[in-house]
Amino acid sequence: MNRIFVANKPMFVSSNKFLTSLKKRDNVVKGGFSGILDPFACGALIVAYGQYTRLFSYLAKEPKVYRATLWLGMKSDSLDLENILGIYDTPRLDEVRVKEIVESFSGEIRFTPPKFSAKKILGKKAYELARAGEEVRLKEEMMKIFKIEFLGYNHPFISFRVWVSAGSYIRSLGEMIAKELGAFGALSYLERESEGEFRYEKEKPLNPLSILPFCKIEARDLDNEGLYFKVLNGKKLEPKELKISKEGEYIVKFDEFFSIISYKNHAITYLLNRIPLC
To answer: For a FRET experiment, which of 113, 123, 218, 272 has its CA 20 to 30 Å from that of 27?
Structure first.
């Protein structure tokens, strides 16, 4: 089965375990997902079966949009509900100030990823070291916040929606907001609403030709009978055969399959070849 769709991962289930349940449900052997969600988080997860797992790196998945609730006064090793160290009373804050602080986090923000994360240290995942009680030190990184929207403050909970770049950690963002407000803080809720144009729509199958951000070339319009066999066998292509003059990536579509090519420096290379259409 070749299929790509957006699933809705529930809370407190790992992305891998959720994928396993989907594969079992659909009787699929080969499957994968793009953009891992923490077990604590829920929401949109792009899933593909069969040959369509090869498409992940070519999808436009920014900005990523999350809805989150920050619990002021909660201290957690993982910056969420999973590894709570304690909950402390915090004074009620002025809502206007809270809104100003939340919405001040925009642009490029330096942050340190949570130690309970999939970041690797000497080949081991940080969360594996953290669970083993070992010291975890992660390097400071950068995330881009395209937009952040304050949704409400019902003490001790602050809700916000944020549009971010790939590689961002909303748990770290929540911790930074809490620190700016003079308190401990960790997320009590995190939902990914979308990645680029990808959002959950009851697992509706997606057409790869519609979701890939490349210009499309209909092979049948080129009046070149030999083109099919050249692409089928991965033979060298010339720009004039495809009637292209502008550098970039293209989809070459045949009746049974499509290929993704790159035209650069007067040469054509295959990025992916013979992806079935089904």
So the answer is: 272
